[in-house]
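Q: Two folds, back to back.
A: First:
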Amino acid sequence: MDYSENRPIWPGSSSFTVGSTPFGFFDSDSLFQQHADKFANFAAQHLGYPITDIELQDINFYTALESAVIEYSNQVNQINIVNNLVNTLGVNTASAFLGGGSLTGVNVGTSLGYITKLSKAYGTEAGTGGTVKWRKALINVTPGQQTYSIRQAVSASLAESGVALSSTSSIEIKRVLHNAPPAIVRYFDPFVGTGLGSQQLLDSFNFGGFSPSVSFMMMPIHADLLRLQSIEFNDQIRKSHYTFEIHGDNITFWPVPTTPSGSNAGSPFYEKVWIDYIFDDEKNKDAILFGNTALLTNVVSDASNIPYTYQSYNTINDMGRSWIFKYGVAVAKEMLGQVRSKYGTIPIPNSEVTLNGGDLMSQGQSEKDALITQLREFLDKLTKEQMLTRQNAEATQMNEMLSKIPLKIYVG
């Protein structure tokens, strides 16, 4: 192609239509549609039109404008993410979030939401609250059998409600209700009053005729505590203490269950043991991203999936649009430099003309870098940390100024 004879140049005007930009992020914005053609003239005249031909077409200027808005949105959203990531961790990123919208243009207030969610996760682990439902299962004890299957007990308990236990469900035991009878039950017995040598005391208070009369004893509280402790130590040392062990799917009880009646009857008799459990899937579903372990899906976990989108062009203020226009011109200048660099010189009669493609590319890149630096420095001052620091400095200065005001002397 003879560049000197067939060179596409800017005709001096354009007519924007939807679909003229590569991505079309802002094509439906009425203000963007109005500014697209105006920006094309603005950029072309900054590049020397009509004194010199501009080897660009309208779509090049539209692309430069779209690139500038995208870059502006990117810089603003980076600061928004820094300010709001902690407050949005665990927030749903699904399409239903905010009616299918995003956090762009939304004021994210500072709250205790993240801390509250975190405390609920701790509550689930500690058994003091949380959002995970505790379920109960019953183990029917057989005399002489110590070890039982936890999954079989859970499956049987769920079957009573018409629910089948999935083979992939992981069960976490929270509590086993298998404890020795309280010592207080054996201490305050209607027949032990005389054994404590306190029958005369009971009779003196006219409590001797009551059953259990020992409930009315007027004795030092430490005497009761010592007797209770003695009973518990006796059970722990001299008897098979009530306890259990869990290994994998099996739970083992002590002491060995006995028969409730007949010649084999024994005192450590128990026929039912209840357990409290949860499903790990439910805990993981309601847990919170903490540390480096992701327990949730489809939620904000880091800067990569926090739901921020490009800014709406019609909501960007004049300061932002001014930056966009300057950045767009720098992009257009870089484009023109790339075009002119394809042909270093243009032949003319008896000579040739050297094009300035390299200079335009260098100028465009330098202007883009300077604009990004300027915007970044400005936005860095708007982080919550910087604003709090500035407010603190203002308050300190205000207090210093107020301290220099003479105080009035009040005479009553």
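A: Second:
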Amino acid sequence: MGKMRPVFKHGDAAYIIIAQKPIQHFAKIIGEAPNMEYVQLYMQSLGCDHVLRNENHFMFCETIPDVDFEVIE
């Protein structure tokens, strides 16, 4: 069985967190704003479709799709 990954709920959506990196990992100089182009490229290299950000980290995620279901009586 594969490695269990954490799930993060944000609003009405749920995401599987594939990786987390400190925000400063994407800045040229410590204390500078992150280069969002680098963030986007890293997200794509992981095969993720969404990036969330908290106070200290970017979270690279896969969106968990909504499930359409029909109630059977």
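Q: And?
A: DSSP finds one helix and four strands in the chain.
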